[in-house]
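Students often ask why we bother predicting the structure of a whole assembly rather than each chain alone. The short answer is interfaces. A chain on its own may look different once its partners are present, and contacts between molecules only exist in the joint model. In this exercise we take two input lines together and write out one structure for the complete complex. Read the inputs first and try to guess which parts will touch.
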Amino acid sequence: MDTKIDHFRLLTVAWLALVALTLVGLGLGEWFRDARWLPLLVAAIIWLKGALVARYFIESHLAHPFIARLLRGFIAIAPVALILTAFFGDTLARWATL
Amino acid sequence: MVAAVLHTPPDIPVEEGRRIPGNKGIWVGITCEIIEFVVLFAVYFVARAHFPDAFHEGAQRLSVISGTVITLLMVTSSYFIACSVNAIRSGRHRASVLWLVAGLIVALGYPVAKYLEISWNLAHGIDGSSGIFFTVYYYLTFNHLVHATWGILGILYVLARLLFHGYSAADYTGLEALASYWHATDIIWLIIFPLFYVLA
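Now the answer. The structure tokens for the assembled complex follow.
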């Protein structure tokens, strides 16, 4: 990667997108509080925001494969767990009962 | 006589054009941080699966404004610190210092906002014994605050080095390592925020 290139505009766009996603997510969470599909939307927003920080702030796509995989995996874990808990909560609770 | 020869381990092969942001040491730390929070999130989801109603009702009692303010502080300080790295890469030392100072000031808003949030919680009768949701909320958010505090101390150290020209366009490893840690801590908050404040 050419680290001499000025990425200021890209960083600013990523930051504005993060702010917008935060506010949009809040609004949608309020308006569709009881919607069954709300966890799907929240999971998508979590993933998108995490991916934005990883790609534009950490530059994970240019990083060592271990770092890229670590971040990709971590960003995916919570959204997947959220969807599983929302739609298969009883099964998950049964499996996690001692 | 048998002579013991120590061979230095070969460097981890890095694919063409791939690099380590900061240094290997910080990524060992970030990996440990991620593993720790994966375990904490596992506890959150197991508790949520067992007590869905408590999590539904609990989120409605938290201050959404506090959560939103902390989120905006985290993403904004992350952005400022990324701009500081961007500036030092092109040799703009003064701009790099100013961006990092801005990042520090905004980051310091996090413990202040957290203090106000806890005060608000206590005034509304919300403490660690208010139920399963609040127990999980307190240990996860306090844990994050501890990690953010390490980050703020790191910003102070890196800022001091930067002020004395410890970093340049040729070598900014320490600044980028600090930035990587702060961005990882930012990602963790971006997961915590909707789990506690949005999913009511």
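Check your guess against this: Residues 83 and 99 of chain B are 6 Å apart (CA to CA).
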